Amino acid sequence: MQPARRARRGPAAGCHNLPESCHGNAQMGLHTGGMSPDDLRIWLNHFEYHAEHPRCIPGGLDDVLRPEERRLIASSIATFQLGEQSDGRTLVRAAERFARARQMPALVRIIELFIREEQRHASLLRSFMEDHGIPLKSSHWTDHAFRRLRRLAGLELCMCVLITAELIGNVYYRVLASATGCQRLRVLCRTLVADELVHVAFESQVLLALRAARPAWARTLIRWAHRGFLVGTASVVCLTHRSLLRHSGHDARTFLRLCLAQYDFYLEPVKATLAAAPSVEGTRSPGRG
Predict the structure, then answer these.
(1) Contact 198, 19 (CB under 8 A)
(2) What predicted TM-score, i.e. pTM, was given to this entire model?
(3) What would the pLDDT profile of 65-116 be if each residue is shown by its tens digit?
(4) Domain 20-267 in CATH: superfamily?
(5) N-term to C-term CA, the chain
(6) Between vectors from CA 14 to CA 8 and to CA 15, what angle results, nearest 5°?
């Protein structure tokens, strides 16, 4: 049995500012190909609250980045900063088409606030880089490839590409934090991960909702295609950020394992079942498959 996963997919616990609690409703509270109004209200409440009360990096933190640390992280952090600063127009247009067809206007507002939060991450990274003389990047082939992929189709593919980047980013920022003694950078990485864990919860609920209406064989095919895409993308990150990963004690195998663990937690179906126990009436309670 896997208690953590079971708890994650359980019903909402009544706290309206904890979107993780509604993640389990992705396959229970659906319209065809969408999410329930209650799901959307919870997410909108979360993103509106954090738009007004964003997580901040406290002042007064140790901000010493040693020269060898700067050389190690400069190119790597600049690539991820570039990826965070998308204007999100393709995603917003896809969300508008989807929401208009299903009368779900709140979805568009959620996506807009979500993108604003991503842009704030880019601003936080840029501020740190400028303070430490780390040059910004205006382009990188991996960022270009991701942007091209998001333009190919509708909301589902956009969210698939986006969540892949964020799942890998959650692992990357932990690696980056472990590679430095700079307290400001370590807190910055933890702040980004805190926001992006919620982003991934939202994105995974959307994807699970979109896929729920498909036949089982199609869901299986999509799931394996998505896993393959994540493995391929994480392998590229391993190659292009290998110095940082190696310094932090990660080889390609460990990095891929961590990325796949993130994918499995959010997007794989729950395989565990609860131990069957007699009910009050003497019948057995069915387990979840």
Answers:
(1) yes
(2) 0.78
(3) 999 999 999 999 999 998 888 778 888 988 999 888 888 889 999 999 999 9
(4) Ribonucleotide Reductase, subunit A (1.10.620.20)
(5) 12
(6) 85
